[in-house]
Amino acid sequence: MLDVNHITVEYNNVPTLIDFNLHMDKGEIISLVGESGSGKTTVIRAILGLLPQEGSVAEGDILFEGRSLLGYSEKQMNEIRGTDICMIFQDSGAMINPIRRIGSQFEEYILLHEKISRKEAHQKAVRMLEAMRLPDGENIMRSYPFQLSGGMRQRVGIAMAMTFQPKLLLADEPTSALDVTTQAQIVRQMVELNHEFDTSVIIVTHNLGVAAYMSHRILVMQNGRVVEEGGREQILQEPSCEYTKKLLQAIPVMDGELYVE
Ligand SMILES: Nc1ncnc2c1ncn2[C@@H]1O[C@H](COP(=O)(O)OP(=O)(O)OP(=O)(O)O)[C@@H](O)[C@H]1O
Ligand SMILES: [Mg+2]
Predict the structure, then answer these.
(1) How many other CB atoms are found less than 10 A from the CB of residue 233?
(2) Which ligand is nearest to the CA of 53?
(3) Per-residue pLDDT reduced to its tens digit, 144-177
(4) Ligand 1 centroid distance, CA of 94 (Å)
């Protein structure tokens, strides 16, 4: 489904993400973990075709369903983003315009990608909000972003991202700004969505506990390189790299077992 073939990303001609390689199947969940500056967001942006102006993929290729995304025009990328490939940011509140009601923004987003009436778009949005366990969808639609909690805004962001049942969801620290309980709920919902729609997910997280709970495979990154890669059990039980061991020490231990929710 997604093949990232040995890409190197440069910022101002300086290689920053080096020889990154990832092959992903339909329905798979992969976590990228690693310290700040290790290149996680760069991976996500490269896949989305959203590197900043000074950034570029200098080597390698990115294939989505067998076709090179690097060869797509801006217009083709715009069509894919928001339908086949979607993205959730750390704070979806930042993505949503603060001075406009959720409803009009959500409806417009739907109308941008689908030729239906505004009323139908409205109903679709409400259904998506309720699927994300936001209780009164109509009420959320009437709200301004600042009237919602961080967790609610993040659910709105995920609801929007899931509207067109994307084949690939890219989530860059979607829960880092939230308290632990809300984090756990949202992570659980993302797993549910993955089961329901068979969406493949790449999630960036600082939290190896979150990674281990939700993903099939984990990639550990440091200084622009993947330093360890493996299935969740393998990473948790037999980490080979010192850095992974350090990350593991940050997960609480209960009754001699790693506490992975
Ligand atoms: N626009 C840019 N111009 C120059 N260098 C950049 C730019 N964006 C990122 N970098 C550099 O690329 C490296 C990787 O950054 P990236 O944002 O991918 O890290 P990250 O793993 O997502 O970190 P964090 O956990 O803090 O979000 C860093 O050294 C960063 O300084
Ligand atoms: Mg980042």
Answers:
(1) 9
(2) 1
(3) 988 998 888 888 988 898 888 899 999 998 887 7
(4) 19
